[in-house]
Amino acid sequence: MGELLRMEGVDKRFGSFYANRNVTLSIQEGEVHTLLGENGAGKSTLMNCLLGLSTPSAGKIYMRGEEVHIDSPRDAVAHGIGMVHQHFMLVEDMSGLENIILGDKRHNTPLLQKADDRKTIEGLMQRYGLEVDLDQRVGDMSIGMQQRVEILKVLFRGADLLILDEPTAVLTDLEVQGLFDIMNSLTDEGKSIIFISHKMREVMHISDRVTVLRRGECIDTVEVSKTTEQELADLMIGQKFTESTYQKVDATDQPMLTLTNVSYHPEVKHGGLKDVTLTLHKGEILGVAGIDGNGQGALAEVVTGLIAPESGEVVGPDGSSIALFSPQAFIDAGFGNIPEDRNKMGLVGDMTIAENLVLKQTNTERFSAGHGAWLKMDAIQEFAEQLREENDIRCTSVSQTARSLSGGNQQKVILARELDSHPKLLVAVYPTRGLDIGATGFVHDQIVAQRDAGCSVLLISADFDEVLKLSDRIVVLFEGQIMGTYPGANPPIKEISLAMAGK
After folding, report:
1. Which one of 54, 225, 415, 482 has the fewest CB atoms closer than 10 angstroms to its CB?
2. In what order do the strands lie in the sheet with 66-68?
3. pTM, to two decimals
């Protein structure tokens, strides 16, 4: 098979800042080609140039040896390029079928040929192993099924090159294997895939070749069969990468947070809570292990006071009952929160990085006068620059919007804001989702440092390795119930794994 895509000498400048500099990328027909790099390395910018969402400052793009000009997403589709975004572009109230055909150029008229489209889509499903209930409302589908709808969308539009952006970030292990089976069936048919991921084991498992970007430049392209995880990590960060290990500590007898027989929508099999009892002690990391969708979201919302339990009691560090927090009460209680959805709950996308960094302190004397009536912009700017440096937030300016940052750098902004106040209790939900290995290590170091300073950390993560690595104690959540509590030091991994499966 020959070369499908070639991006040659691509630059993308924003003023004097180069997001991409002289990047050359070659994609062969029928291969999985991983794009690897730290957060802010230029991966998203490069893909935006390929998708017509951004115009390169220099360079050329070739499809099957012929130069093409991609000035819009419509041009990208016309050239057989499609992307499955990390955050799905679906209408939840519409069916799978309706989402797939929505906006397709064949449907410029009011009359939709649904019967013909269904036949075409069913053919694609059968051909690539993409089983989906086309009549089911998308909002009622699992994350894995929603992702299949997204893949069918781009295949229905004739894509020969699929870009998968962090496609495994929200999938269970079983769903990840299902996705890899689909990817293999696609490449067997001659389709090509650009795979964007920070998970090294997955990269080594599914990729044919890997191109490493660092600070906007192409460092190298290597065959997976001729490299190792360590070599890729070293290439990515530009130095020898050493993974940290952390000492586990024994819990104190001082409770920081106690849940007693807490229930919330217990009839909801995979999203509610049923008679949850647990205690988080001062100066420990309590990890919550479990397959995503087994009540983790409800647990986080109850603990942070966003929802009130239907029954049971939540008692805070001062011994008083917590029913429902206001945001200000949460801050005043000395709590920090790294939410599951950084875009909806963690940041205000249209506000600047600096403004997001002081969101919890806008009424303090340090940053305002008149209890928030007049903001001290110089003080905010200086503070933001300090946190930017300390947390390696990759941006051109703290005055740019939070929305313009890569997902990993958005997460760094949230982490910097929440930890700067040295919280008594930190709720960290999927704290390293979408982060590269260097940034993940930094976040882990920060969380452990907070614990060592006396902070109590409730860690909720679908990454089992992360839970094992950080937790002093582990509880397993399955269908909204606590299945057991286990030590973080020398944990019984097989027993925990069985508990995660409800056994």
Report:
1. 225
2. 17-28, 3-14, 58-63, 66-68
3. 0.74
